[in-house]
Fold this protein.
Amino acid sequence: MRTRKMLPVLALSALLALTACTSDGAPQGGDNGDEPTLRVAVILPGETTDKGFNKTGEQTVELLEKEFGAEATLTESVNPAQQVDVYRQYAQQGYDLVVGWGGQFSDGAVAAAEEFPDTKFLVVSSAVENGSNLASYDTALEDWHFVGGYLMGRLSKTGVVGQVSGQCFASTASGQNGTRDGAKYANPDIEWLATYTGDFEDPTKAQQAAQAMIDQGADMLATNLNQGVYGVVQAAKASPGVGVVTEWLDNSADAPGVILSGVDKSYARFVGVKVQQILDGTWKGEHERFFLPEDWGPAIFKTADIPDDVYQDALDVQAKIASGELDVVRDETCPG
């Protein structure tokens, strides 16, 4: 059984840690008298208007400003092919920490970390590390998505559910397979469909993939996409009786009766944990994985389209996962 750690609750007291930093891992940029200001940059693969993964990057910047008094900024729609240049620009400007928002930014972080040893680099949904200034973390996405998959399995009337995702790497595969396992936990006879479009941002590819699943009888679809999610929603809108479970934020108001829920797995809290490590001198250039904590709150959003008893059953499943009573297997296998 996996060991689960309670995540610290971020509070304004984190600001006090700024004054306690020494030159060993202290913020390099900014100067407010005796209190150095942590400078953090986040590079995003898409636009914050996606109301999903990229939007949570913006929320992270806001959290760092509020909770740590950091000078935080972000750059949207960074082409992964240009990532080294963007990492380099922020390092040259004296930023203390540069965060790559997604596993697709791993290679650039590895290169930039070697070139700029005095700058710290963090990649989310990745496993890169160098033992000094390059760290990463991922979450046990299977924990969160198992709850979403359970909900889908309970809500499906056809017994066919599926997920449309962008690119397949270890963390995205674990999330998609967690959705599958949750659906099968709810209904062992469920038929599972899964595909990757190769692009998180392209709604046309996502709509085509979703329609193919609908044509095979799927009436519940999950997503692991950024702007591409709107293609899945569009396909569902054109097919009465098909529901969608998105992720990151509650965007059900964008398509009432179609977006039935979303998986709440925001990364902001985890980035805060890594920043606190910088401030208190415990940062290590290592990979870390966070599991679903017991004090997380609901892992799925409630809408009027979810019966109260089904929603409560899903939360009961979540509680079993968080406590360790239900051990969700991590499967990093990509389809076919």
